[in-house]
Design goal:
alpha/beta; 8-stranded parallel sheet; 8-stranded mixed sheet; 13 helices
């Protein structure tokens, strides 16, 4: 296994390198919150948490390797006002339901991330009730920050609140009893099977608090992963001081949709440069949607830009996540008012994924395609980006980690534009929405066609964009995301592959090889046919042929949807085993 070491010397858990999260908000997902007026509040006997089990195979088919859960602990209302950290919210079920969910996820090779709110508690938290009863100066009151702002109605004043919300009472993180309590909670649920924690509002908690808590937890759980919710500020400094593994990359999230809406690739280019700096210290958690923001399909003014947003998400360094429903193109507008989150936290069908409309299926397959690309190139987890070409309506960047290189070309306009693909000294014609041309490759929408080597560049006169005397990258794939269509060309020492996806026409995926000369061990010689996306050796409804590597055939276990398939089929060693099989190295 490969582990990443950050600037402070901490080692990132090895499994995180291949992590792609499917994130959901449980209370909304299972219809437990909000409840319509007059409707009964769900009880533990309904075991609604188990509805998520019916969706775990969907997470597998999508290509995710883990499920990131929102709050599941007993709370007063929306889950972020916790009343009991050792109890599953009765509106979701009980502890046995949690154990079942974790067991079912792990049986499928899915990791489980929990969401912990340790900056503040809800008004029904027992220690807070004691503080109200016993008054200032009591041992219970010492658990909470003193505040001058108004507290809860009915005279419950004198304690600090989180961002002015009267039902969110701020803990005093300088109290050793609070640190011991939080440490115990983190360890309890990791002991019970969780694989890591998202730490809500980590930006509001003093870094020294986490620096005292997390090392204690890691002594018992060295493979646990800790993600802090941080919106603004100096990300690397916060990660280092708090001993976090990662923080939420809101800077890149904003730059992605904002640059697309404004047709301003320079904003994205600037943020990618900032992102490189973060990667020097830690691996950020990347996303284009979550339970706290307007859904990406609603945020984008032109729905054809969704492919661009997802291309950036899955081809830049980081640990990516997909918010449940975004993979179907669900809409949802967050508003700053009571109930303003309800539209982005809807209930999902209790018995699993529904039948999809044509539009939903198109967006779903787009996600699968790009997640499949990410899973085939796990080195993208720590890849840095370098801008190769930019203009008013296009951006070309290179993602690189060691000898691995991937070039991403984004055309935001309706017309073709010429771009410089500096990784190989080539120029290409980047199609717009109305035209479809690819160098010397002419293809119909229904014909697989062949890929020939594109023409050499004359724009900068460079024989090889990696520089004179530099070793040629082992792999130089090109990903082009454009409005409604996507091409992928993978070049590997003379072995070229062209993948073409036409999402407007709902084509299934086909790709083949035209190989001249392979690297040591031989190229992947046999054609492969894939339906609904490659997912790192575990694909949804795929029909792999036997594959020949170096003249030796290797049999392969059937995957999901194939006759004789068995669960679990996704494990941490899937990527390593597949790369070893194909002779791709570590």
């Amino acid at each position: 296994m490969i582990s990443n070491t950050d600037a402070a010397g901490r080692v990132e858990p090895d499994w995180v390198r291949h992590a792609i999260w499917w994130q959901l908000y449980p209370l909304g997902f299972v219809g437990s919150y909000p409840i319509a007026p007059g409707e009964p509040v769900p009880g533990a006997g309904e075991h609604r948490l188990l509805r998520i089990v019916a969706w775990l195979d969907h997470a597998i088919e999508l290509g995710a390797s883990g499920v990131a859960l929102g709050p599941v602990f007993a709370s007063t209302s929306h889950g972020y006002d916790t009343s009991d950290y050792y109890r599953i919210d009765p509106r979701l079920g009980d502890e046995a339901d949690f154990d079942t969910l974790v067991a079912e996820a792990h049986a499928r090779g899915l990791r489980v991330l929990l969401d912990g709110v340790f900056n503040h508690v809800g008004p029904d938290f027992p220690r807070y009730r004691e503080a109200i009863e016993q008054g200032p100066g009591s041992a219970a009151a010492a658990w909470f920050q003193a505040g001058t702002r108004a507290g809860l109605p009915g005279g419950e004043a004198g304690f600090g609140t989180f961002e002015g919300h009267p039902g969110l009472i701020s803990l005093d993180h300088g109290n050793p009893e609070v640190a011991d309590y939080v440490t115990g909670v983190l360890e309890h649920w990791l002991d019970r099977g969780a694989d890591g924690w998202r730490l809500d509002a980590a930006y509001a908690v003093p870094a020294e608090f986490w620096a005292g808590v997390l090392p204690r937890v890691r002594e018992r759980h060295p493979q646990a992963w800790f993600l802090g919710e941080v919106i603004h500020g100096d990300y690397p400094a916060i990660v280092s001081a708090a001993t976090l593994d990662s923080v939420t990359q809101y800077e890149l999230w904003k730059a992605i949709w904002s640059s697309l809406n404004d047709h301003n690739p320079h904003e994205l280019a600037w943020s990618l440069g900032r992102h490189n700096g973060f990667l020097d210290s830690f691996t950020p958690a990347t996303f284009v949607g979550n339970h706290d923001v307007t859904r990406i399909s609603t945020r984008l003014e032109d729905p054809r830009h969704l492919a661009h947003a997802l291309a950036v998400l899955f081809t830049t360094g980081g640990t990516p996540s997909i918010y449940a429903g975004d993979e179907y193109g669900y809409a949802g507008l967050k508003t700053e008012e009571y109930g303003g989150d309800d539209a982005i936290r809807p209930e999902f069908p209790a018995d699993g994924p529904p039948a999809l409309t044509d539009t939903e299926r198109t967006v779903y397959r787009l996600h699968q395609d790009l997640i499949g690309l990410r899973r085939r190139h796990p080195w993208l987890h720590d890849a840095r980006t370098r801008i190769l070409d930019s203009g008013a309506d296009h951006l070309v960047y290179e993602a690189r980690a060691g000898d691995d290189t991937l070039v991403v070309a984004l055309n935001l306009g309706d017309q073709p534009c010429g771009v410089d693909l500096g990784c190989s000294g080539l120029t290409q014609l980047l199609p717009g929405a109305r035209r479809r041309r690819w160098g010397r490759v002419s293809r119909s929408r229904r014909t697989a066609g062949r890929c020939s080597r594109p023409p050499r560049a004359t724009r900068h006169g460079r024989p090889d964009a990696v520089g004179a005397g530099a070793a040629r990258p082992r792999s130089a794939p090109l990903l082009e995301a454009q409005r409604g269509q996507r091409h992928v060309q993978e070049v590997d020492q003379g072995c070229q592959r062209l993948e073409t996806f036409d999402h407007e026409r709902e084509e299934s995926i086909r790709f083949g090889h035209r190989c001249r000369q392979g690297r040591e061990g031989g190229p992947l010689a046999a054609a492969q046919e894939v339906d609904r996306g490659v997912i790192d050796g575990v694909s949804a409804r795929r029909t792999h042929q036997r594959i020949a590597v170096g003249g030796v055939e290797h049999a392969r276990e059937p995957g999901i949807g194939e006759q004789g398939a068995k669960l679990p089929v996704v494990r941490d060693d899937v990527v390593a085993n597949r790369r070893e099989l194909l002779g791709e190295g570590a």
